[in-house]
Amino acid sequence: MSTDVKREKLSLSQFIMKVVNGSTSGIIVAVIPNAIFGQIFLNLIPTWEGFRVLYELVQIIQLLMPVLVGIGVARQFNLDLIPSLSVGAAAFLGSGNVINNAGMWQLVGIGDTVNAMLVSGIAVWFVFLIENKVKAFVTIAYPTIVGAGAGIIGYLTLPYVSSLTRLIGNIVGTATELQPIVMSVIIAVIFAILILTPISVVAIAIAISLDGIGSGAANLGLVAVVLFMAMGSHKAKNEAGITISIILGGVKAMMPNFFKNLKIMIPVAICSGIMGALAPILNIQGTPASAGFGFAGLVGPLVAYGYLEHSAILNIIILVLVYAVIPFIVCGLTYKFSRDGLKVIKDTDFEATI
């Protein structure tokens, strides 16, 4: 009896989305400890030297990102252990985060996340090609063909992919410096809309190294869309658990509502644009790791706190205003105006589909 592996046929778009979703899981595991605690530990070093060790440890976890991306992608396709580890190895090779310096191998950051994602997809494809042909040579074939083979391809594509991602990051960074308010509005709106699609805003922020004011703007844009969609859920009389889950980071659950009525994009753009403009005005900054989180897990506010230069009390007041009070007012007014004035939305547009 044949024991060939039977795989579900996937379209190109389905395959890509699995790669993106798996990559996002790996990215989140890698960046969350540093995103939440990194800046806190750094600021507390003067009070106790032990915080320096803790700061270094959460930094080290982040260095594992390429491997975690590869394993995350492999899990999306339900690969077995050795194939999954081989995909992780290929992603590590393709990330370029290890260099040889005078005969010594050195880690130089998280590497190129986009290329790690690309190589992970290629490695999974290699697994599909050989999994029914190498059953007696699993421990040899997968590490060699998938790990090293796909990794070599990633090594070759790395300079080109890195050049492209650096170019995008430099364009965004330069534009934000030249036109901080305009670019902050644009970034906030883009991230707010993308969070309502299958695209991972966390992966994008990491890929283009979105930091500083640009990261803060993306963060505030996400705060706006989360509160706006939560208000819609409440007005639609969804179960309280659904509304709470949106606030806690489950806003992607509202994707079906968004695609059923794309006019929702109009109020989302209004409220997120207003919030994004506050980033350069109030010096709300962030890192590539924090840009895609909004206030989920308090990642955005905690990182932003480290960039504010006022007294502790004033810093906290500013964060409460920009992450809670102002967005609540802005989203409430925008919702009412969009429903009763522009008439582009109705309360029923936000009825839960899950």
UniProtKB/TrEMBL annotation:
Q: Which GO terms describe its biological process?
A: phosphoenolpyruvate-dependent sugar phosphotransferase system
Q: Which residues cross the membrane?
A: 20-41, 53-74, 81-99, 105-128, 140-161, 181-206, 213-231, 264-282, 289-307, 313-335
What are the alphabetically sorted keywords of the record?
Answer: Cell membrane, Membrane, Sugar transport, Transmembrane, Transmembrane helix, Transport
Q: How does it sit in the membrane?
A: Multi-pass membrane protein
- Which GO molecular function, any one, fits this protein according to its record? protein-N(PI)-phosphohistidine-sugar phosphotransferase activity
Q: Where is the Phosphotransferase system EIIC domain?
A: 17-351
The record's section on InterPro entries has: PTS_EIIC
Compartments where located: Cell membrane
Q: Name one GO cellular component term.
A: plasma membrane
Name of this protein: PTS sugar transporter subunit IIC
Identify the taxonomic lineage of the organism of origin.
Bacteria, Bacillati, Bacillota, Erysipelotrichia, Erysipelotrichales
